[in-house]
Structures are given as C-alpha cells and as structure tokens.
Amino acid sequence: MGFTLAPTAASQGFRLEAHDSVGSTNALALERARAGDAGKLWVVSKKQESGRGRRGRVWATPEGNLAATLLVVTEGELRMAATLGFVAGLALADALDAVVPKGRISVALDGASAGRNRFELKWPNDVLASGAKLAGILLESTLLDGNRFAVAVGIGVNVVAHPEDLPYPATSLKALGATCDAETLFLALSDAWSENARLWADGRGLTAIRQRWLERAAGLGGEVAVRIDGDVVRGVFETIDEDCRFVIRESGGRMITVAAGDVHFGAVASAGAQ
C-alpha cells in the first residue's frame, strides 16, 4: 500500500506529500514553508539520499525505511517549539506500540533500564529498542516573514535496515523480528502525533508531555555520562526539568542541568563517553 494519513490526522487538517525517494524530507519541508506553505504538512519517503542527524551527522535511510517530516509553522516562541522533539518521540513510541506485536521486543540498556517499555526514549532525540537505536529525531527551523518561523520535525526509523558502522548499537524493526512496513508505521504515527500534539497544546501542556516522556525514559536512575563540548559530566540520570533539559546528580549530590550534549548510559558511560 502507499502512504496515507490516519483519518484522525486528515480530519484535523493535516496534509500529506509522499515520495519514493528524496534528498531530505526536512529540507523539502522547509522549502515548502519558504514558498508559503501554512504547515501541518507531512513529507514522507521510504528512501532518503542525504538525511542528517544531530550536529550534521549522516543518517542513512535506505529503501524501505521511514523518513517522515512534519512541517509546523507558528508565531510562538522558538524555545517552546524546540520541545516538539519530545512530542515526536512520544508519538513514535505510541505508534510502534500500536503496530509491533507484543512479545516481539524486549528492552535492555546496559543494565540502566528497568525494562518498563518495549520502546524507550533516550534524551534528547532517539528511540531505542533492545538498548539499540531504532529511530532518530531532528528538529530544524527557518525564519519566515511576519514574525513567524517554520519547524521541520524530522523522524527517521530503521524499518528494514540499520547502519552497521556506528559507535553505538543500532537496530531495525526487521532485525527485531517485526514485520511492520514503513507505510503502516506512518499511518500509526500520523494518528499518534495528533493525540500527543493535542496534549502539548502549543506548549501549554508541556508538563503533561514531560511526565509521559519520563515514563518512557531510557536510563532513568542509572549511571550516565554526558559529553559537553569536549568535557564529560558523570553521575545519575535524575530527571528532565520543566524545560525538558537533562538533569544529572553527581556523586556529591550536586545537580547539573544540561541543555545539549551526547548521553551515554551504563557501561558505555565509562568507556564510550571519552
């Protein structure tokens, strides 16, 4: 089947632009915004030639994987729009729960995870399964006229294949024994986004989003190391604060709040964060 929106999404005014292959769904969505698109546009593809991850890293999307970007155009605060990444993580985890049969996925993250969820959210922008990266989320923005800006909420999911040459574990739905395809996953994602975005309510519901996110948080309460501009901060993953920043409790009890950085859990907290 081809890509299609869930009835809930269509009824709320979301639109769909589907491709067999693109350079980058994020770049295409931002092009549409600069050309006057009003937002609520999903740009999706099963193959992405030049996708990006955080800090400009390459994120491959071979044939059969899912590359999806939602274009959001708003006059609100850019700081608040940045929390859309947490909305995206929750929506994707909900969608995965809906389409992957129970019992197919187990969760284990270097001993740091309590295994409460089959799909866990790693701060700030990854979805994990069996302790390995299954999906990544990337937000990009551009200024528009009229005091508006556009946010491209990019979601890349390893449906049928995953990279092998990464410095951290990665996996795909196929490798985990699931038979879901990209089209089915997107249908569920467009439905789950509608509900989580309603809860977020342009940032007014961020407290509820934060609580839901913490219920799925990978490594919560476990040993963690965060690399920040070459320095490494170590301690216990305490929580995320009211602005969704990462909070570490050092051995002496001091709390450190992190706005951006690379997070490593468990055994990797000692070796991988160097």
Automatic annotation (TrEMBL):
Give the species: Mesorhizobium retamae
Where do the BPL/LPL catalytic domain residues begin and end? 1-201
Task: Write down what this protein is called.
Answer: biotin--[biotin carboxyl-carrier protein] ligase
Q: Does the keyword Nucleotide-binding apply?
A: yes
Reactions it catalyzes: biotin + L-lysyl-[protein] + ATP = N(6)-biotinyl-L-lysyl-[protein] + AMP + diphosphate + H(+)
Tell me the GO molecular function terms: biotin--[biotin carboxyl-carrier protein] ligase activity
Which EC numbers does the record give? 6.3.4.15
* Alphabetized UniProt keyword annotations: ATP-binding, Biotin, Ligase, Nucleotide-binding
How would you classify this enzyme at the top EC level? ligase
Instruction: Please name the SUPFAM superfamilies in this protein's record.
Output: C-terminal domain of transcriptional repressors, Class II aaRS and biotin synthetases
| UniProt-listed Pfam families | BPL_C, BPL_LplA_LipB
